[in-house]
Fold this sequence. Notes:
Elements: H1 2-10, E1 19-22, H2 25-42, H3 46-53, H4 61-73, H5 85-90, H6 98-108, H7 116-130, E2 133-136
Parallel strand pairs: 1-2
Amino acid sequence: MKSVVLICLAFAVFNCGADNVHLTETQKEKAKQYTSECVRESGVSTEAINAAKIGKYSKDKAFKNFVLCFFNKSAIFNSDGTLNMDVALAKLPPGVNKSEAQSVLKQCKNKTGQGAADKAFEIFRCYYKGTKSHILF
């Protein structure tokens, strides 16, 4: 479950050839809190969480709701359902190339979906495909 926290917090996943970076202790605490709350609120399955740990993302409603919940709690999404790039960039841990992250986020921020959860999920997937950062703790 902690890997999913990392994925959502920094829009990153574990993939081969990526650069390793670590969350700060404060980020770890918040990520754990938000994950616990969002798992409970979204009803996401253990299978979807385990699949996300290895970079396979479920397109089911519960997983999309989990991503949206995490984005909302971490203020990565504004109340109007748009990506808050400044907050997203500020929440990246030391070691992440923020210039590269900003470039990828600019490409991803206008992704759409049939609702807020779909939009959050599409932004999340876009960033995953466009970045090479690992976030570890």
